[in-house]
## 1
Amino acid sequence: MSYSAFFYGSLMSKVVLLRVLCGATASDRDKTLKLNTIQLRPALLKGHKRRSLIGEEYPAVINTGDKHDNVMGVICQGLELEDIKALDCFEGDDYKRVPTKVLFENSTMIDTEVYIWIGDKKLLSEEEWSFDYFIASGKEQKWLDERCEFYDVDRLHAVDTQ
Ligand SMILES: *[C@@H]1O[C@H](CO)[C@@H](O)[C@H](O)[C@H]1NC(C)=O
Protein backbone atom coordinates (compact mmCIF):
# COMPACT_ATOMS: atom_id res chain seq x y z
CA MET A 1 0.00 0.00 0.00
CA SER A 2 1.36 3.38 -0.98
CA TYR A 3 0.26 6.70 0.48
CA SER A 4 0.53 10.31 -0.59
CA ALA A 5 0.28 13.72 1.04
CA PHE A 6 0.17 17.34 -0.06
CA PHE A 7 2.74 19.59 1.64
CA TYR A 8 2.41 23.38 1.70
CA GLY A 9 4.77 24.49 4.47
CA SER A 10 8.01 23.41 6.07
CA LEU A 11 7.67 19.89 4.62
CA MET A 12 8.26 21.31 1.13
CA SER A 13 11.90 21.44 2.30
CA LYS A 14 13.70 18.16 1.60
CA VAL A 15 15.81 18.73 4.72
CA VAL A 16 12.69 18.88 6.87
CA LEU A 17 10.92 16.05 5.04
CA LEU A 18 13.87 13.63 5.26
CA ARG A 19 14.49 14.45 8.91
CA VAL A 20 10.87 13.58 9.67
CA LEU A 21 10.73 10.47 7.46
CA CYS A 22 14.19 9.06 8.27
CA GLY A 23 14.93 10.33 11.79
CA ALA A 24 17.80 12.30 13.30
CA THR A 25 20.40 9.53 13.08
CA ALA A 26 19.79 8.52 9.44
CA SER A 27 22.84 8.37 7.17
CA ASP A 28 23.04 10.26 3.87
CA ARG A 29 22.64 6.89 2.19
CA ASP A 30 19.38 6.18 4.07
CA LYS A 31 18.09 9.60 3.05
CA THR A 32 19.04 9.08 -0.60
CA LEU A 33 17.28 5.70 -0.58
CA LYS A 34 14.13 7.30 0.83
CA LEU A 35 14.29 10.11 -1.69
CA ASN A 36 14.48 7.50 -4.47
CA THR A 37 11.27 5.80 -3.31
CA ILE A 38 9.14 8.95 -3.13
CA GLN A 39 8.04 11.32 -5.89
CA LEU A 40 7.73 15.05 -5.25
CA ARG A 41 5.81 17.18 -7.75
CA PRO A 42 4.30 20.67 -7.69
CA ALA A 43 0.55 20.66 -7.13
CA LEU A 44 -2.28 23.08 -6.48
CA LEU A 45 -4.84 22.81 -3.67
CA LYS A 46 -8.03 24.70 -4.50
CA GLY A 47 -10.58 26.07 -2.04
CA HIS A 48 -8.00 26.59 0.71
CA LYS A 49 -5.88 29.41 2.07
CA ARG A 50 -2.39 29.28 3.56
CA ARG A 51 -1.76 31.54 6.53
CA SER A 52 1.24 32.38 8.64
CA LEU A 53 0.77 31.45 12.30
CA ILE A 54 1.33 34.19 14.83
CA GLY A 55 4.61 33.57 16.63
CA GLU A 56 5.53 30.46 14.61
CA GLU A 57 7.88 29.71 11.72
CA TYR A 58 5.42 27.45 9.94
CA PRO A 59 2.03 28.01 8.27
CA ALA A 60 -1.42 26.52 8.42
CA VAL A 61 -3.96 25.75 5.73
CA ILE A 62 -7.67 26.27 6.18
CA ASN A 63 -10.57 25.20 3.98
CA THR A 64 -12.47 28.25 2.71
CA GLY A 65 -14.52 26.50 0.03
CA ASP A 66 -13.87 29.54 -2.22
CA LYS A 67 -12.68 28.42 -5.64
CA HIS A 68 -10.54 31.55 -5.93
CA ASP A 69 -8.41 30.49 -2.96
CA ASN A 70 -5.45 28.40 -4.08
CA VAL A 71 -2.44 26.98 -2.28
CA MET A 72 0.62 26.05 -4.30
CA GLY A 73 2.53 23.17 -2.77
CA VAL A 74 4.07 19.78 -3.38
CA ILE A 75 2.44 16.37 -3.61
CA CYS A 76 4.56 13.57 -2.21
CA GLN A 77 3.72 10.11 -3.55
CA GLY A 78 5.19 6.72 -2.69
CA LEU A 79 4.94 7.11 1.09
CA GLU A 80 4.65 4.10 3.38
CA LEU A 81 2.48 3.68 6.47
CA GLU A 82 5.48 4.35 8.75
CA ASP A 83 6.05 7.62 6.88
CA ILE A 84 2.46 8.68 7.51
CA LYS A 85 2.87 7.84 11.20
CA ALA A 86 6.02 9.98 11.38
CA LEU A 87 4.26 12.84 9.58
CA ASP A 88 1.22 12.63 11.89
CA CYS A 89 3.56 12.80 14.88
CA PHE A 90 5.46 15.78 13.46
CA GLU A 91 2.28 17.69 12.66
CA GLY A 92 1.00 17.30 16.21
CA ASP A 93 -2.49 17.89 17.58
CA ASP A 94 -3.14 21.20 15.86
CA TYR A 95 -3.34 19.63 12.42
CA LYS A 96 -5.62 16.95 11.08
CA ARG A 97 -4.91 14.81 8.03
CA VAL A 98 -7.96 14.88 5.78
CA PRO A 99 -8.68 13.53 2.28
CA THR A 100 -8.54 16.11 -0.50
CA LYS A 101 -7.92 16.52 -4.21
CA VAL A 102 -5.07 18.46 -5.77
CA LEU A 103 -4.17 19.40 -9.34
CA PHE A 104 -0.93 18.60 -11.12
CA GLU A 105 0.55 21.27 -13.41
CA ASN A 106 -1.14 19.57 -16.37
CA SER A 107 -4.55 20.01 -14.63
CA THR A 108 -4.92 16.30 -13.84
CA MET A 109 -6.71 15.88 -10.53
CA ILE A 110 -5.53 13.40 -7.94
CA ASP A 111 -6.75 12.19 -4.55
CA THR A 112 -4.42 12.76 -1.64
CA GLU A 113 -4.42 14.00 1.95
CA VAL A 114 -3.57 17.34 3.53
CA TYR A 115 -2.90 18.47 7.09
CA ILE A 116 -5.40 21.22 7.79
CA TRP A 117 -5.31 23.49 10.83
CA ILE A 118 -7.66 22.50 13.65
CA GLY A 119 -5.82 24.53 16.28
CA ASP A 120 -6.72 27.91 17.76
CA LYS A 121 -8.15 30.14 14.99
CA LYS A 122 -6.83 33.20 16.83
CA LEU A 123 -3.30 32.13 15.86
CA LEU A 124 -4.06 32.45 12.14
CA SER A 125 -2.54 35.69 10.85
CA GLU A 126 -3.84 37.48 7.76
CA GLU A 127 -0.46 37.06 6.10
CA GLU A 128 0.45 34.49 3.48
CA TRP A 129 3.47 32.40 4.51
CA SER A 130 6.64 32.49 2.44
CA PHE A 131 8.65 29.32 1.86
CA ASP A 132 11.58 31.35 0.49
CA TYR A 133 11.67 33.41 3.68
CA PHE A 134 11.47 30.26 5.82
CA ILE A 135 14.57 28.89 4.04
CA ALA A 136 16.39 32.25 3.90
CA SER A 137 15.78 33.01 7.59
CA GLY A 138 18.31 30.29 8.49
CA LYS A 139 16.10 29.05 11.33
CA GLU A 140 15.07 25.86 9.57
CA GLN A 141 17.46 23.43 11.31
CA LYS A 142 17.07 24.78 14.85
CA TRP A 143 13.31 24.93 14.54
CA LEU A 144 13.23 21.43 13.04
CA ASP A 145 15.32 19.92 15.86
CA GLU A 146 13.11 21.54 18.49
CA ARG A 147 9.88 20.47 16.87
CA CYS A 148 11.00 16.87 16.32
CA GLU A 149 12.12 16.72 19.92
CA PHE A 150 8.90 18.22 21.20
CA TYR A 151 6.70 15.77 19.31
CA ASP A 152 8.98 12.77 19.94
CA VAL A 153 9.39 12.15 16.21
CA ASP A 154 12.85 10.67 16.67
CA ARG A 155 11.63 8.39 19.46
CA LEU A 156 9.13 6.95 16.98
CA HIS A 157 12.00 6.02 14.64
CA ALA A 158 13.98 4.47 17.50
CA VAL A 159 11.01 2.22 18.32
CA ASP A 160 10.55 1.34 14.62
CA THR A 161 14.05 -0.06 14.21
CA GLN A 162 14.04 -2.23 17.34
C1 LIG B 1 -0.13 14.80 -15.58
O1 LIG B 1 0.98 14.82 -14.72
C2 LIG B 1 1.08 13.71 -13.85
C3 LIG B 1 2.25 13.96 -12.91
O2 LIG B 1 3.41 14.37 -13.57
C4 LIG B 1 1.21 12.43 -14.65
O3 LIG B 1 1.28 11.34 -13.77
C5 LIG B 1 0.00 12.29 -15.55
O4 LIG B 1 0.14 11.14 -16.36
C6 LIG B 1 -0.15 13.53 -16.43
N1 LIG B 1 -1.39 13.43 -17.16
C7 LIG B 1 -1.51 13.77 -18.43
C8 LIG B 1 -2.87 13.64 -19.02
O5 LIG B 1 -0.56 14.17 -19.10
## 2
Amino acid sequence: MSESQFRKPTSRRAFLGGSAAAAVAVGAGAARAAGPDPLITEVQDWAAGLGEGVDATPYGLPIRFEDDVIRRNVEWLTADTISSINFTPIHALDGTITPQGCAFERHHSGAIELRKEDYRLMINGMVETPLIFTYEDLTRFPRENHVYFCECAANSGMEWAGAQLNGAQFTHGMIHNMEYTGVPLRTILEEAGYNGEGKWVYVEGADASSNGRSIPMEKALDDVLVAFKANGEALRKEHGYPVRLVVPGWEGNLWIKWLRRVEVTDAPVESREETSKYTDTLADGTSRKWTWEMDAKSVVTSPSPQSPIPHGPGPLVITGLAWSGRGAITRVDVSKDGGRTWETARLARAGEARALTRFYLDTEWDGSEMLLQSRAMDETGYVQPSKAALREVRGENSIYHNNGIQTWWVRESGEAENVEVS
Ligand SMILES: Nc1nc2c(c(=O)[nH]1)N[C@H]1C(S)=C(S)[C@@H](COP(=O)(O)O)O[C@H]1N2
Ligand SMILES: [Mo]
Protein backbone atom coordinates (compact mmCIF):
# COMPACT_ATOMS: atom_id res chain seq x y z
CA MET A 1 0.00 0.00 0.00
CA SER A 2 1.33 3.45 -0.88
CA GLU A 3 2.09 6.22 1.62
CA SER A 4 -0.98 8.08 2.74
CA GLN A 5 -1.40 11.73 1.71
CA PHE A 6 -2.87 12.38 5.13
CA ARG A 7 -0.88 13.50 8.14
CA LYS A 8 0.40 10.68 10.34
CA PRO A 9 1.93 10.65 13.80
CA THR A 10 5.65 11.46 13.40
CA SER A 11 6.62 7.95 14.37
CA ARG A 12 4.90 5.04 16.05
CA ARG A 13 7.45 5.05 18.82
CA ALA A 14 7.07 8.72 19.63
CA PHE A 15 3.34 8.19 19.68
CA LEU A 16 3.53 5.26 22.09
CA GLY A 17 5.69 7.25 24.50
CA GLY A 18 3.38 10.24 24.40
CA SER A 19 0.30 8.15 24.79
CA ALA A 20 1.59 6.26 27.80
CA ALA A 21 2.40 9.53 29.54
CA ALA A 22 -0.98 11.02 28.71
CA ALA A 23 -3.07 8.04 29.70
CA VAL A 24 -4.58 7.64 33.14
CA ALA A 25 -5.37 4.14 34.35
CA VAL A 26 -9.03 3.72 35.19
CA GLY A 27 -11.05 0.84 36.66
CA ALA A 28 -10.67 -2.43 34.78
CA GLY A 29 -7.41 -1.53 33.09
CA ALA A 30 -8.99 0.89 30.61
CA ALA A 31 -7.26 4.23 30.02
CA ARG A 32 -8.86 7.69 29.96
CA ALA A 33 -6.85 9.89 27.57
CA ALA A 34 -5.73 13.23 28.98
CA GLY A 35 -5.10 14.61 25.47
CA PRO A 36 -6.08 13.78 21.91
CA ASP A 37 -5.02 10.31 20.79
CA PRO A 38 -3.62 10.47 17.24
CA LEU A 39 -4.71 6.85 16.69
CA ILE A 40 -8.23 8.20 16.92
CA THR A 41 -7.92 11.77 15.70
CA GLU A 42 -5.60 11.18 12.70
CA VAL A 43 -6.51 9.21 9.59
CA GLN A 44 -4.28 6.14 9.61
CA ASP A 45 -2.63 4.32 6.69
CA TRP A 46 -5.06 1.45 6.94
CA ALA A 47 -8.02 3.78 6.42
CA ALA A 48 -6.45 5.97 3.76
CA GLY A 49 -6.24 3.40 0.99
CA LEU A 50 -7.53 0.03 -0.02
CA GLY A 51 -6.82 -3.26 1.64
CA GLU A 52 -5.94 -6.50 -0.12
CA GLY A 53 -8.37 -8.19 -2.48
CA VAL A 54 -9.88 -11.61 -1.88
CA ASP A 55 -7.51 -13.14 -4.43
CA ALA A 56 -4.40 -12.19 -2.41
CA THR A 57 -4.50 -15.11 0.01
CA PRO A 58 -5.98 -18.39 -1.28
CA TYR A 59 -4.87 -20.06 1.95
CA GLY A 60 -4.13 -17.74 4.85
CA LEU A 61 -1.29 -17.62 7.34
CA PRO A 62 -1.37 -15.61 10.59
CA ILE A 63 -0.76 -11.85 10.17
CA ARG A 64 2.97 -10.98 10.33
CA PHE A 65 2.59 -9.25 13.72
CA GLU A 66 2.01 -12.71 15.19
CA ASP A 67 5.13 -14.27 13.73
CA ASP A 68 6.53 -15.17 17.14
CA VAL A 69 3.68 -17.64 17.73
CA ILE A 70 5.62 -20.56 16.32
CA ARG A 71 6.94 -24.00 17.15
CA ARG A 72 10.36 -23.88 18.73
CA ASN A 73 12.92 -26.51 19.57
CA VAL A 74 15.43 -26.74 22.38
CA GLU A 75 18.85 -26.71 20.78
CA TRP A 76 20.68 -29.04 23.15
CA LEU A 77 17.78 -31.48 22.86
CA THR A 78 17.64 -31.30 19.09
CA ALA A 79 21.16 -32.09 17.87
CA ASP A 80 19.49 -34.17 15.13
CA THR A 81 16.35 -32.45 13.79
CA ILE A 82 15.20 -35.48 11.75
CA SER A 83 14.70 -37.67 14.80
CA SER A 84 13.46 -35.01 17.10
CA ILE A 85 10.81 -32.84 18.62
CA ASN A 86 9.52 -29.29 18.66
CA PHE A 87 7.07 -27.58 20.98
CA THR A 88 3.62 -25.94 20.71
CA PRO A 89 3.64 -22.22 21.70
CA ILE A 90 1.01 -22.83 24.41
CA HIS A 91 2.08 -19.63 26.21
CA ALA A 92 0.67 -17.59 23.29
CA LEU A 93 -2.52 -19.53 22.47
CA ASP A 94 -5.94 -19.29 24.09
CA GLY A 95 -9.05 -21.44 24.00
CA THR A 96 -8.31 -25.13 23.56
CA ILE A 97 -7.97 -25.99 19.85
CA THR A 98 -4.39 -26.12 18.59
CA PRO A 99 -3.94 -24.87 15.02
CA GLN A 100 -2.14 -27.59 13.03
CA GLY A 101 0.43 -25.04 11.85
CA CYS A 102 1.98 -24.63 15.30
CA ALA A 103 1.15 -28.01 16.88
CA PHE A 104 4.27 -29.80 18.18
CA GLU A 105 5.89 -32.49 16.04
CA ARG A 106 7.70 -35.62 17.07
CA HIS A 107 9.30 -37.79 14.40
CA HIS A 108 11.59 -40.78 14.75
CA SER A 109 12.75 -40.65 11.14
CA GLY A 110 11.41 -37.38 9.76
CA ALA A 111 8.04 -36.28 8.33
CA ILE A 112 7.33 -38.14 5.10
CA GLU A 113 5.30 -37.12 2.08
CA LEU A 114 2.73 -39.76 1.15
CA ARG A 115 0.07 -39.15 -1.53
CA LYS A 116 -3.52 -40.22 -0.84
CA GLU A 117 -3.35 -42.24 -4.06
CA ASP A 118 -0.37 -44.20 -2.76
CA TYR A 119 -1.90 -44.80 0.65
CA ARG A 120 -2.70 -48.39 1.73
CA LEU A 121 -3.88 -49.69 5.12
CA MET A 122 -3.44 -53.41 5.77
CA ILE A 123 -5.42 -55.31 8.43
CA ASN A 124 -3.89 -58.75 8.99
CA GLY A 125 -3.14 -61.35 11.67
CA MET A 126 -5.97 -62.96 13.60
CA VAL A 127 -8.86 -61.85 11.38
CA GLU A 128 -11.09 -63.92 9.09
CA THR A 129 -10.28 -61.87 5.97
CA PRO A 130 -7.06 -59.89 5.83
CA LEU A 131 -7.91 -56.67 3.98
CA ILE A 132 -6.23 -53.73 2.33
CA PHE A 133 -7.96 -50.34 2.30
CA THR A 134 -7.24 -47.37 0.09
CA TYR A 135 -7.79 -43.83 1.34
CA GLU A 136 -11.06 -43.68 -0.56
CA ASP A 137 -12.22 -46.96 1.00
CA LEU A 138 -11.82 -45.42 4.44
CA THR A 139 -13.98 -42.44 3.51
CA ARG A 140 -16.94 -44.78 2.78
CA PHE A 141 -17.35 -45.97 6.39
CA PRO A 142 -19.54 -43.99 8.83
CA ARG A 143 -17.29 -41.48 10.54
CA GLU A 144 -17.16 -39.59 13.83
CA ASN A 145 -15.85 -36.26 15.13
CA HIS A 146 -14.08 -35.92 18.49
CA VAL A 147 -11.77 -33.42 20.18
CA TYR A 148 -8.78 -35.04 21.90
CA PHE A 149 -5.39 -33.97 23.24
CA CYS A 150 -2.22 -35.75 22.09
CA GLU A 151 0.59 -35.51 24.64
CA CYS A 152 4.04 -37.01 24.17
CA ALA A 153 4.83 -39.14 27.23
CA ALA A 154 8.14 -37.21 27.40
CA ASN A 155 6.35 -33.87 27.90
CA SER A 156 7.99 -32.21 30.96
CA GLY A 157 10.55 -35.04 30.90
CA MET A 158 13.44 -32.58 31.11
CA GLU A 159 12.08 -31.33 34.45
CA TRP A 160 12.50 -34.56 36.46
CA ALA A 161 15.80 -33.49 38.00
CA GLY A 162 14.71 -29.90 38.72
CA ALA A 163 13.45 -26.72 37.07
CA GLN A 164 15.26 -26.47 33.75
CA LEU A 165 13.55 -25.01 30.67
CA ASN A 166 12.33 -21.44 30.86
CA GLY A 167 8.89 -21.35 29.31
CA ALA A 168 5.57 -23.22 29.24
CA GLN A 169 6.22 -23.91 25.54
CA PHE A 170 9.30 -25.95 26.50
CA THR A 171 8.17 -27.48 29.81
CA HIS A 172 4.63 -28.42 28.65
CA GLY A 173 4.45 -27.83 24.88
CA MET A 174 4.61 -31.46 23.68
CA ILE A 175 0.83 -31.38 23.53
CA HIS A 176 -1.82 -30.46 21.01
CA ASN A 177 -5.60 -30.66 20.97
CA MET A 178 -7.58 -31.04 17.76
CA GLU A 179 -10.95 -32.05 16.45
CA TYR A 180 -10.45 -35.32 14.56
CA THR A 181 -12.64 -36.83 11.89
CA GLY A 182 -12.21 -40.52 11.32
CA VAL A 183 -13.55 -44.05 11.34
CA PRO A 184 -13.54 -46.09 14.58
CA LEU A 185 -10.82 -48.76 14.44
CA ARG A 186 -13.53 -51.14 15.69
CA THR A 187 -15.47 -50.70 12.41
CA ILE A 188 -12.42 -51.64 10.36
CA LEU A 189 -11.56 -54.65 12.54
CA GLU A 190 -15.15 -55.89 12.22
CA GLU A 191 -14.99 -55.42 8.44
CA ALA A 192 -11.99 -57.78 8.42
CA GLY A 193 -13.93 -60.31 10.51
CA TYR A 194 -12.34 -59.87 13.91
CA ASN A 195 -13.84 -62.74 15.93
CA GLY A 196 -12.86 -61.90 19.50
CA GLU A 197 -9.80 -64.16 19.56
CA GLY A 198 -6.88 -61.73 19.21
CA LYS A 199 -6.20 -59.78 22.40
CA TRP A 200 -3.87 -57.10 20.99
CA VAL A 201 -3.28 -55.06 17.86
CA TYR A 202 0.16 -54.12 16.61
CA VAL A 203 0.04 -50.79 14.75
CA GLU A 204 2.76 -49.28 12.60
CA GLY A 205 3.45 -46.36 10.27
CA ALA A 206 4.78 -46.11 6.70
CA ASP A 207 7.84 -44.04 7.68
CA ALA A 208 11.29 -45.63 7.98
CA SER A 209 11.00 -45.85 11.79
CA SER A 210 7.51 -47.45 11.57
CA ASN A 211 7.16 -46.58 15.28
CA GLY A 212 5.34 -49.89 15.95
CA ARG A 213 3.33 -50.26 19.13
CA SER A 214 1.05 -52.85 20.71
CA ILE A 215 -2.39 -51.80 21.95
CA PRO A 216 -4.68 -54.02 24.04
CA MET A 217 -7.82 -55.03 22.13
CA GLU A 218 -10.09 -53.53 24.78
CA LYS A 219 -8.77 -50.05 23.91
CA ALA A 220 -8.67 -50.75 20.16
CA LEU A 221 -12.41 -51.60 20.23
CA ASP A 222 -13.27 -48.72 22.54
CA ASP A 223 -12.46 -45.21 21.25
CA VAL A 224 -9.45 -45.48 18.88
CA LEU A 225 -9.98 -43.62 15.59
CA VAL A 226 -8.43 -44.04 12.15
CA ALA A 227 -8.39 -40.29 11.44
CA PHE A 228 -7.95 -38.38 8.21
CA LYS A 229 -8.98 -34.84 9.14
CA ALA A 230 -7.91 -32.53 11.95
CA ASN A 231 -9.65 -29.25 12.75
CA GLY A 232 -11.77 -29.73 9.64
CA GLU A 233 -8.98 -30.02 7.08
CA ALA A 234 -6.61 -32.72 5.90
CA LEU A 235 -3.93 -33.76 8.36
CA ARG A 236 -0.72 -31.84 7.79
CA LYS A 237 2.20 -33.87 6.50
CA GLU A 238 3.95 -33.61 9.86
CA HIS A 239 0.92 -35.01 11.70
CA GLY A 240 0.64 -38.11 9.51
CA TYR A 241 -1.06 -37.20 6.23
CA PRO A 242 -3.15 -38.81 4.94
CA VAL A 243 -4.13 -41.06 7.88
CA ARG A 244 -3.09 -41.33 11.52
CA LEU A 245 -4.23 -43.29 14.54
CA VAL A 246 -5.88 -41.35 17.38
CA VAL A 247 -5.62 -43.11 20.74
CA PRO A 248 -7.56 -40.87 23.16
CA GLY A 249 -5.95 -40.16 26.53
CA TRP A 250 -2.96 -42.43 25.85
CA GLU A 251 0.65 -41.44 25.30
CA GLY A 252 1.39 -39.71 21.99
CA ASN A 253 3.79 -42.46 20.91
CA LEU A 254 0.77 -44.74 20.25
CA TRP A 255 -0.79 -42.21 17.85
CA ILE A 256 0.78 -43.82 14.75
CA LYS A 257 1.24 -41.37 11.87
CA TRP A 258 1.09 -42.45 8.20
CA LEU A 259 -0.71 -45.55 9.55
CA ARG A 260 -0.04 -48.51 7.23
CA ARG A 261 -0.78 -51.70 9.15
CA VAL A 262 -2.91 -53.06 11.99
CA GLU A 263 -2.09 -56.65 12.92
CA VAL A 264 -4.36 -58.56 15.30
CA THR A 265 -2.18 -60.65 17.62
CA ASP A 266 -2.58 -62.76 20.76
CA ALA A 267 0.30 -61.05 22.59
CA PRO A 268 2.12 -57.72 22.57
CA VAL A 269 5.05 -57.51 20.15
CA GLU A 270 7.44 -55.93 22.72
CA SER A 271 8.83 -53.54 20.12
CA ARG A 272 11.61 -51.04 20.77
CA GLU A 273 9.09 -48.26 21.38
CA GLU A 274 7.45 -50.20 24.22
CA THR A 275 10.48 -51.74 25.92
CA SER A 276 13.71 -49.74 25.84
CA LYS A 277 11.63 -46.58 25.28
CA TYR A 278 8.41 -45.47 26.93
CA THR A 279 9.30 -47.46 30.03
CA ASP A 280 10.55 -45.80 33.23
CA THR A 281 13.14 -47.26 35.57
CA LEU A 282 12.38 -46.67 39.24
CA ALA A 283 14.82 -46.05 42.09
CA ASP A 284 14.78 -49.75 43.11
CA GLY A 285 15.81 -50.83 39.59
CA THR A 286 12.41 -52.20 38.54
CA SER A 287 10.61 -50.56 35.63
CA ARG A 288 7.14 -49.23 34.96
CA LYS A 289 5.89 -50.61 31.67
CA TRP A 290 2.64 -50.27 29.70
CA THR A 291 2.11 -46.80 31.13
CA TRP A 292 -0.39 -45.88 28.45
CA GLU A 293 -2.70 -43.39 30.14
CA MET A 294 -1.64 -39.79 30.56
CA ASP A 295 -2.23 -38.68 34.15
CA ALA A 296 -4.13 -35.49 34.99
CA LYS A 297 -1.93 -32.45 34.55
CA SER A 298 -2.14 -28.67 34.18
CA VAL A 299 0.02 -25.62 33.63
CA VAL A 300 -0.43 -21.85 33.87
CA THR A 301 0.28 -20.63 30.33
CA SER A 302 0.09 -16.91 31.19
CA PRO A 303 1.69 -15.27 33.03
CA SER A 304 4.73 -17.46 32.39
CA PRO A 305 8.37 -16.88 31.37
CA GLN A 306 7.50 -16.25 27.69
CA SER A 307 4.33 -14.34 28.60
CA PRO A 308 5.24 -11.83 31.32
CA ILE A 309 2.64 -9.49 32.84
CA PRO A 310 2.75 -6.41 30.57
CA HIS A 311 0.98 -4.09 33.02
CA GLY A 312 1.08 -2.88 36.61
CA PRO A 313 -1.08 -3.85 39.60
CA GLY A 314 -4.83 -4.25 39.15
CA PRO A 315 -6.93 -6.66 37.14
CA LEU A 316 -4.96 -9.69 35.94
CA VAL A 317 -6.14 -12.70 33.97
CA ILE A 318 -4.28 -15.84 34.98
CA THR A 319 -4.94 -18.64 32.50
CA GLY A 320 -3.82 -22.13 31.65
CA LEU A 321 -4.65 -25.61 30.41
CA ALA A 322 -5.65 -28.80 32.19
CA TRP A 323 -6.15 -32.34 30.87
CA SER A 324 -6.46 -35.96 31.88
CA GLY A 325 -6.16 -39.21 29.94
CA ARG A 326 -8.70 -40.78 32.29
CA GLY A 327 -11.64 -38.51 31.58
CA ALA A 328 -12.91 -34.98 32.02
CA ILE A 329 -11.26 -32.30 34.15
CA THR A 330 -13.65 -31.36 36.94
CA ARG A 331 -11.71 -28.68 38.80
CA VAL A 332 -8.50 -26.64 38.63
CA ASP A 333 -7.07 -24.75 41.59
CA VAL A 334 -4.53 -21.94 41.31
CA SER A 335 -2.04 -20.90 44.00
CA LYS A 336 -0.18 -17.58 44.07
CA ASP A 337 1.99 -18.54 47.04
CA GLY A 338 3.68 -21.76 45.98
CA GLY A 339 0.91 -24.09 47.13
CA ARG A 340 0.18 -22.71 50.62
CA THR A 341 -3.27 -21.43 49.67
CA TRP A 342 -5.46 -22.26 46.65
CA GLU A 343 -8.30 -20.59 44.77
CA THR A 344 -10.60 -22.52 42.45
CA ALA A 345 -10.28 -21.33 38.85
CA ARG A 346 -13.14 -20.85 36.39
CA LEU A 347 -13.34 -23.47 33.62
CA ALA A 348 -14.07 -21.77 30.30
CA ARG A 349 -16.31 -24.72 29.41
CA ALA A 350 -17.19 -27.90 31.27
CA GLY A 351 -14.31 -30.36 30.93
CA GLU A 352 -14.58 -32.90 28.11
CA ALA A 353 -13.07 -36.37 28.41
CA ARG A 354 -9.50 -36.63 27.10
CA ALA A 355 -9.48 -33.08 25.70
CA LEU A 356 -7.80 -29.88 26.88
CA THR A 357 -9.74 -27.69 29.30
CA ARG A 358 -9.05 -23.94 29.50
CA PHE A 359 -9.13 -22.33 32.95
CA TYR A 360 -9.08 -18.68 34.05
CA LEU A 361 -8.50 -17.02 37.39
CA ASP A 362 -9.71 -13.43 37.05
CA THR A 363 -7.88 -11.73 39.86
CA GLU A 364 -6.54 -8.48 41.32
CA TRP A 365 -2.75 -8.36 41.32
CA ASP A 366 -1.28 -6.27 44.13
CA GLY A 367 2.02 -5.97 42.28
CA SER A 368 3.97 -8.22 44.60
CA GLU A 369 5.79 -11.36 43.52
CA MET A 370 3.91 -14.64 43.17
CA LEU A 371 4.77 -18.34 43.08
CA LEU A 372 2.09 -19.36 40.58
CA GLN A 373 0.90 -22.96 40.42
CA SER A 374 -2.08 -24.87 39.08
CA ARG A 375 -3.46 -28.22 40.21
CA ALA A 376 -5.88 -30.30 38.13
CA MET A 377 -8.51 -32.79 39.26
CA ASP A 378 -10.31 -35.25 37.00
CA GLU A 379 -13.60 -37.11 37.12
CA THR A 380 -11.99 -40.18 38.71
CA GLY A 381 -11.08 -38.06 41.76
CA TYR A 382 -7.37 -38.07 40.86
CA VAL A 383 -5.49 -34.93 41.99
CA GLN A 384 -2.33 -33.73 40.19
CA PRO A 385 0.63 -34.40 42.53
CA SER A 386 3.51 -32.15 43.54
CA LYS A 387 6.90 -32.87 41.95
CA ALA A 388 8.23 -33.94 45.36
CA ALA A 389 5.42 -36.48 45.77
CA LEU A 390 6.06 -37.83 42.26
CA ARG A 391 9.80 -38.19 42.85
CA GLU A 392 9.16 -40.08 46.05
CA VAL A 393 7.37 -42.79 44.09
CA ARG A 394 9.25 -42.68 40.78
CA GLY A 395 12.76 -41.60 41.72
CA GLU A 396 14.71 -39.39 39.31
CA ASN A 397 15.64 -41.83 36.52
CA SER A 398 12.37 -41.31 34.68
CA ILE A 399 11.88 -39.50 31.42
CA TYR A 400 8.18 -40.07 30.85
CA HIS A 401 4.93 -39.22 32.60
CA ASN A 402 6.06 -36.22 34.65
CA ASN A 403 2.74 -34.61 35.61
CA GLY A 404 4.00 -32.78 38.69
CA ILE A 405 2.75 -29.30 39.63
CA GLN A 406 4.65 -26.52 37.82
CA THR A 407 5.74 -23.30 39.56
CA TRP A 408 6.40 -19.92 37.92
CA TRP A 409 8.10 -17.27 40.04
CA VAL A 410 6.47 -14.02 38.89
CA ARG A 411 8.47 -10.94 39.93
CA GLU A 412 7.25 -7.43 40.71
CA SER A 413 8.38 -6.47 37.20
CA GLY A 414 5.89 -8.99 35.79
CA GLU A 415 8.66 -11.24 34.46
CA ALA A 416 8.46 -14.93 35.30
CA GLU A 417 10.90 -17.79 35.76
CA ASN A 418 10.72 -21.58 36.04
CA VAL A 419 11.41 -22.58 39.66
CA GLU A 420 10.59 -25.31 42.15
CA VAL A 421 9.34 -24.83 45.69
CA SER A 422 10.00 -27.27 48.49
N1 LIG B 1 4.80 -43.34 12.14
C1 LIG B 1 5.12 -42.61 13.20
N2 LIG B 1 4.18 -42.31 14.11
C2 LIG B 1 4.47 -41.59 15.20
C3 LIG B 1 5.80 -41.12 15.45
C4 LIG B 1 6.78 -41.42 14.46
O1 LIG B 1 7.95 -41.05 14.56
N3 LIG B 1 6.41 -42.17 13.35
N4 LIG B 1 6.07 -40.43 16.62
C5 LIG B 1 5.15 -40.67 17.74
C6 LIG B 1 5.33 -39.82 18.89
S1 LIG B 1 6.58 -40.23 19.95
C7 LIG B 1 4.44 -38.82 19.21
S2 LIG B 1 4.57 -37.96 20.66
C8 LIG B 1 3.34 -38.44 18.30
C9 LIG B 1 3.47 -36.97 17.91
O2 LIG B 1 2.50 -36.59 16.99
P1 LIG B 1 2.66 -35.19 16.22
O3 LIG B 1 3.97 -35.19 15.49
O4 LIG B 1 1.47 -35.06 15.35
O5 LIG B 1 2.65 -34.12 17.29
O6 LIG B 1 3.35 -39.22 17.10
C10 LIG B 1 3.69 -40.57 17.30
N5 LIG B 1 3.47 -41.29 16.08
MO1 LIG C 1 6.31 -39.02 21.96
